[in-house]
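chain below, 172 aa
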Amino acid sequence: MEPVHRGLGRCVCSFWLAVAFDIVGLLVLLIGVFVNVFFYDLLIYAGAIVIFLSLIWWVFWYSGNIEVPPAELEDDVGLVKKDKGGLTGISGAVRRLSSRVSSGLRSSLRRTGAPFGTRAPSAQRSTGGTPAEQVVVSMATMTAMEDTTQSIPAVASCDVEMPHTRTETSPT
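prediction:
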């Protein structure tokens, strides 16, 4: 026989914690508003935060007291109805298809060894799995107010010439 919960319901502890947080938060907030102390703003903010945190306990209390009839719960959590005798009809076919797809995905991930959601880099995918060539970029440092024009050695059979630039520094 299921116990009968009256008054505050099943989650009495969450209810009293929510009430305590509300009372303490309100007291701290009111002390910050009406008492002449130099840290009144800290008290006002702290009281508001404690009242906000009481919402957590109110949600726990409310959600802990939601009652769902077992007939409605069977469909949502995957419990098999006793009077139907197992997986029959459309719901049984959908469950079998779902289990086949999920087991197929699990076994394919075990074969490849790659975690779910990882992919090969796009350069490797486009060239059929061979790694792409690396592009080497050389950089030169320039001193203040120096004008240079450099020619970088040939990389991948093309000459790249640096544009005529001027670098300035601030006099700080």
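The first helix runs from residue 12 to 34. Residues 29 and 45 are 7 Å apart (CA to CA).
thats it, cya
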